[in-house]
Design brief:
Length: 314
């Protein structure tokens, strides 16, 4: 087994290697003066079981292209099998034609990765689970929800005093899983989206949040509009404390500024996307998914079951 990383999330790659007690493979990735990407593997990979780590996060097009070039590089270097580990799969929100004359870019990216030479995919909390079906190669789709729930349990709030809040209708299934695991009640925000930048929170239904510790779970926080709008609505409905949590901290535009001004006790994210200093909100807790991904990589390499990780305890 050999593990290599692109430039999108080297810290997570080191965390995975630390968990596996396995060295990170040596490779050089640089840009030519005109921006073209060049990579060279600095050790023999012929006949090896290779795991290539790259979150397709910002700068997203650079990360995607770098991943494709790496896959091509390993294929031409005669790796036996190339498993692509994509902790954050960018472009996932473009997963269907919801109006005329628009692309399905998530499918396009899946095709590109597969055609470049990937043999299998390991990913986490896809925006829409059906994206798995965009690939014709095996996909292992992990859930960071258990890692997030472990943290909220460690805060020792009485479940009777907690309410899980779904920030929109699309997140209800995820919220239900958290509600079951945390043993508390559930409320739902009715979110309407007017554009990629603007959302409107219309109603709050379900359990009362008055005097309660509310925890909002989403798959990602991008501009922060959805989660900050929902946090504001929940606070105005009388919640004592509002936590927000997501697997992927995309945090683009003025998301950090919005979050710093929202009535949020703490923002709980994972490290699928690295937080640069300018993309770090004031009250943030980052949990590592390196053990979860590392364990999945170990199991894939040794042909052991990965499904038991769907109930992973960190
Ligand atoms: C929407 O369906 C997603 O689950 C997220 O709620 C959304 O993508 C977050 O985007 P933003 O932070 O820009 O509102």
């Amino acid at each position: 087994m050999k593990i290599f990383s692109g430039r999108a999330n080297p810290e997570l790659a080191l965390g995975i290697c630390h968990y596996l007690r396995h060295p990170l493979g040596k490779m050089t990735i640089t840009n030519f003066p005109d921006g073209e990407i060049f990579c060279k593997i600095e050790e023999n990979v012929r006949g090896h079981d290779v795991f290539l780590l790259q979150s397709t996060c910002q700068p997203i097009n650079e990360s995607v292209m770098e991943l494709l070039i790496m896959i091509d590089c390993f294929r031409r270097a005669s790796a036996k099998r190339i498993s692509v580990v994509i902790p954050y799969f960018g472009y996932a929100r473009q997963d269907r034609k919801d109006e005329g004359r628009v692309p399905i870019t998530a499918r396009l990216v899946a095709n590109l990765i597969q055609n470049a030479g990937a043999d299998r995919i390991l990913t986490m909390d896809l925006h829409a689970a059906q994206i798995e079906g965009f690939f014709n190669i095996p996909v292992d789709h992990l859930n960071a929800g258990f890692v997030l729930d472990d943290y909220f349990r460690s805060l020792n709030h009485d479940p009777e005093e907690m309410v899980v809040v779904s920030p929109d209708a699309g997140s209800i299934k995820r919220a239900l899983s958290h509600q079951n695991r945390l043993g508390c009640s559930l409320a739902i925000v009715d979110k309407r989206r007017s554009s990629a930048h603007d959302t409107l929170q219309a109603n709050l239904t379900g359990a009362s949040v008055e005097g309660k510790v509310a925890i909002l779970f989403d798959d990602m926080i991008s501009t922060g509009g959805s989660i900050c709008g929902a946090a504001q609505m929940v606070k105005e409905a009388g919640a004592a404390k509002v936590y927000v949590s997501a697997t992927h901290g995309v945090l683009c535009g003025n998301a950090v500024e919005k979050m710093n001004h929202a009535p949020i006790e703490e923002i709980v994210l994972t490290d699928t996307i690295p937080l640069t200093p300018e993309r770090t909100p004031a009250h943030v807790k980052v949990l590592s998914v390196a053990p979860l991904l590392g364990e999945a990589i170990r199991r894939i390499h040794f042909n052991e079951s990965v499904s038991c990780l769907f109930r992973f305890q960190s």
